[in-house]
Amino acid sequence: MYHEQLETLAAYNSWANSRLFKAASALGPERFGEDRGVFFRSMSGTLNHLLAADRIWMRRFTGEGEAPDRLDAILFEAFEPLREARRAEDTRIEAYVASLDEARLAAPFRYKPITNPVDVSGRLGPALFHLFNHQTHHRGQAHAVLTGFGLPAPGLDLIAFIRETGRD
Question: In whole angstroms, what is the distance from residue 99 CA to residue 5 CA?
Answer without folding.
Answer: 14
